[in-house]
């Protein structure tokens, strides 16, 4: 009886995994449709570029969050971390590029150390990253107490790059998703990382060190966080440590929307890209709808809850 | 199952020569191996040889030390004393699986050691990466796993790209066994209850493959509680009891009853049908399960009378915990429970203690609501109750001590007292005395009898068969069925072992 396997199983399983990303893809298309009904120019190349540009740093930060959620951790410091990167970009990277670059590399290393600490001291990642988020905030305020500064020329020109044929923001979104996909789904490093989130006991029995897997995951997340901060600085043209503080929770929502799970083990870079764009578009839709800015946060939260509820329903139906 | 137990392969020992040493060299040797966890001595000095080209069956009851021995032989744990020699090389104290001599020892775990979110091929990489190329490992792993699956289980229907979580239990077990077998040089393959979730066809093809493996000189160590199966496959059988190997015999000429006797069972012909469910005397019935089926149970009928201590025995994981779960949450129509319930979990670290609370708070948390008036706690009444229980069970450290300051046995006393301090009519015990010292156990047994005399009913699952002597009635479960109901003088360790292993004719026919 037990070796009777429904032949429909694989396809159904496939649906179950891609279901959440499908839901958020539908939501994404719906939002673009709403935008274009309010502003017909949204569907042109410059229009799409304008609408999508705000989502790029969010999507990259969401990929960082996804890497950590793949090992079963959650990063509550990513928002302030991205903010700190914009501050370093707007100050040191302009005044002395060498020091600035070293500082950014140091931040990546700090993430790796954080991962090692979490593993060795058995601190819950929630606590450790929340603590780290205050460190990032403090460092950012120390370097640049008030928003300001400027961006290096090469970064500014990337921010204002306007190719004719396609919306420019799609390029970094797709490139980063492809990179993370190669790393997580195709490489053996990705297998280690996902195995750690899926079944650490199996990893240990196979003689692999969970510490190494976790440190690699944190280093990759740190690198993606730096990338997100650079892109954000290129768009805002300056540094502000609290410019990305809302990312912390939105990235978690984006991962869940894209088909990830809190339990770890899954890496869904393409889903996360869709989920991140969807959540980034919410604020665009709200401003096009003339929702008062002091109400926007509340409405945004309700929309996020609605889309997440949709994902849960789809997950239940496909089980 | 195959009945012929003629050993296959030139290396194997001749079936009749039980005293002549086997010509094949031992692959793995354990000498006077001991292992202690806290106060429990899991292994008390094991001597075991596994020779090249033989199938060695390992049998024993709950807690005999089988799984600990396997962990030591597979290099997951070091032994405290004694030596383990693998392929002529003595294992060092800081062992790690897959390193040094243990690279050629592979184990298929009963609960599997696969990552559910990874594909079959990726799981193969995790465990066999030493034998795969750095580039193109995915294709190499896929090819290897597909070929081995075809060889071992022709009807597997598993693709290397399938994720483990999408496979059925049987398919997961197949992948686990294949995973263990895929290595460049395999000297010893340990199979831990390999056929537990496999169907009969898959089991047959697995054992056919095992014979081919041993013909090539690989040793196979088979652990199973299906004694007939072990006897039909193995060349030799080693019997474990109380952390030591008490007997090693050639399988030829050995019968099921002989093995049971070696394991310490009282040799009785298994009763063909379970004793008819006796009405629990003139006691009013507190809880019943009528033909409960599903979630690992098959047609389980159980009654619990007022003031009765009912035991659930048998091998671990045969449905006892599911019965407790049904009684704890009687949501189905086949379960009726009159009155309130309390539950004592076995795993106190995970689901028992509130580690930051004091002993008093841990003890009273269930009874608190009953003592409170209009939802306001009555601390005076609570204090009286707590002091009473602390004195009664002689909990060291007193009421104000932190829960984590107590020893394991005393923590367990608090958790048991928590259930009995409440007003619950039915107390469910989920193997609560594992790893608890003898004095504490004796105190708690007395408590259970006292409370039962006072009109409480207790349903008690224990993996220690000796404990069942404190019960009025014992149901022995096997594969989710009640295979025997023992009362009064019938309850003995030997009897429980006999019925929990013996495959009675009725279950055999249904298979």
Descriptive keywords:
heterodimer, A: 319 residues, mainly alpha, ABC transporter involved in vitamin B12 uptake, BtuC, 15 helices, globular, disordered N terminus, B: 511 residues, alpha/beta, Rossmann fold, 3 domains, six-stranded mixed sheet, 16 helices, 31% helix, disordered C terminus
Question: Can you describe this structure?
Answer:
The complex is a heterodimer of chains A (about 325) and B (about 500). Chain A has a single domain (about 40-320), classed as Orthogonal Bundle (ABC transporter involved in vitamin B12 uptake, BtuC), CATH 1.10.3470. Mean pLDDT of chain A is about 90; it is low at about 1-10. Chain A has about 325 residues and is mostly helical. Chain A has helices spanning about 10-40, 45-55, 55-70, 80-90, 90-95, 95-120, 125-145, 155-160, 170-185, 190-200, 200-205, 210-235, 245-255, 270-290, 295-319. Chain A has 15 helices and no strands. The radius of gyration of chain A is 20 Å and the shape is globular. The two termini of chain A are about 20 Å apart. Chain B is of the alpha/beta class. Chain B has three domains: about 25-115 and about 185-260, P-loop containing nucleotide triphosphate hydrolases (Rossmann fold); about 265-340 and about 425-440 and about 450-510, 3-Layer(aba) Sandwich (Rossmann fold), CATH 3.40.50.300; about 345-425, no CATH class. Helix content of chain B is about 30%, strand content about 25%. Chain B is built from 16 helices and 19 strands. Chain B has helices spanning about 65-75, 120-130, 135-150, 170-180, 200-215, 225-235, 255-260, 320-330, 350, 360-365, 370, 380-390, 410-420, 440-455, 495-500, 505-510; strands spanning about 25-35, 40-50, 55-60, 80-85, 90, 105-110, 190, 220-225, 235-240, 245-250, 285-295, 295-305, 310-315, 335, 340-345, 425-430, 455-460, 475-480, 480-485. A six-stranded mixed sheet of chain B has the order 6-7-8-3-9-10, sandwiched between helices. In chain B, strands 15-16-17-13-18-19 form a six-stranded mixed sheet, with helices on both faces. A four-stranded antiparallel sheet of chain B has the order 2-1-4-5, covered by helices on one side. Chain B starts with about 25 loop residues before the first strand and ends with a helix. The relative contact order of chain B is 0.11. Residues about 1-20, about 270-280 and about 505-510 of chain B have low confidence and may be disordered. The interface of A and B includes residues 10, 198 and 264 of A.
